[in-house]
Design brief:
By secondary structure, this protein is mainly α. It folds into 3 domains: about 60 residues, no CATH class; about 80 residues; about 110 residues. It contains 12 helices and no strands. The protein is elongated and about 115 Å long. The relative contact order is 0.09.
């Protein structure tokens, strides 16, 4: 999850493209950028600044005119046929009506062929206007929907960021980074051992590398879930069990900075950040650093 200042900057940039309609979102962005942004924690921003409510559908003048022309074009062919039929009936006096119309009744009115051609062109024009107006409306609706989704996403992201304790995001991600660095040093340590030793050390290296990779993936899942405000109890339980297995594979010579100690600190950071209000996440006892006695 990003910092609240980054979210506010994106919200302001998006709101500036809306002109006067974006003023409420500009004011929200300014409040999120302020020193007292944390006072908005607990406020239902999605309801107070809902894009669906503040940005109702509104057709532009050009689209409205285009749709009026489309509707008129649909009525044009039958209206033109009715008018030409009226003119033909007025011009007919004797003989075959159709034969006379085919000749235009002595060129006094458009011929039947000219009338049919005009009707066909009018139908094509009406269909073209319909397709163009439909395409313009779909583009407008799609752009408006993407804008609403973008604003809703930013407002939701800001709500989650404000819900986290101050500095919790940085502590959690920094703790995860330290854990991964410690795990990588563990893998490198056992890789060096297995390079000059027998199958036992090689097997130990494979096991420690597998557990370290699993621990790193679990750490990523826990960070993402915690920052998204989800329950991490089950994930933290899996993390604890995997870290305990890893700690039993080797002697942790540094109780402050070894992999097991790093895993324990990461657990503490997750508990502090992700525990829901009024409850504690306790999936397993806090992992203790496992040590082996020096055989010497």
């Amino acid at each position: 999850m990003r910092d609240i200042q980054e979210i506010a900057a994106d919200l302001e940039k998006t709101a500036n493209g809306l002109g006067a309609r974006g003023r409420p979102f500009q004011e929200l962005a300014a409040a999120l950028k302020g020193d007292d942004a944390r006072t908005l924690a607990g406020v239902d921003l999605a309801s107070a600044f809902g894009p669906d409510r503040l940005l109702p559908d509104r057709d532009g003048a050009a689209l409205g005119l285009l749709e009026i022309l489309r509707d008129l074009a649909v009525l044009a062919p039958p209206a033109y046929v009715a008018w030409q039929l009226y003119e033909a009936l007025r011009a007919h006096s004797e003989g075959s009506f159709l034969a006379g119309w085919q000749q235009g009744f002595g060129q006094t009115i458009p011929t039947l062929g000219d009338t049919a051609r005009t009707v066909a062109l009018t139908v094509v024009a009406a269909a073209a206007l319909y397709l163009v107006s439909r395409m313009v409306r779909d583009l407008r609706d799609g752009r408006a929907q993407r804008l609403r989704v973008r604003l809703s996403s930013l407002i939701g992201e800001a709500t989650l960021s404000l819900a986290l304790p101050a500095g919790a995001r940085d502590r959690l991600t920094r703790s995860a980074a330290l854990l991964k660095a410690s795990l990588q040093s563990t893998i490198d340590y056992f890789a060096g051992l297995s390079a000059g030793a027998g199958g036992g050390a090689a097997g130990l290296h494979r096991n420690s590398a597998r557990l370290a990779r699993k621990l790193g993936l679990l750490a990523d899942e826990i960070v993402d879930a915690a920052l998204a405000g989800k329950d991490v109890s089950d994930l933290l339980g899996q993390f604890h069990a995997t870290a305990a297995q890893l700690s039993r594979l080797f002697a942790d010579e540094d109780p402050e900075f070894g992999p097991a100690a790093a895993a324990a600190r990461f657990e503490d950071a997750v508990r502090e950040t992700a525990a829901p209000s009024g409850s504690d996440i306790v999936p397993a006892p806090r992992m203790e650093v496992a040590r082996r006695e020096d055989p010497r």
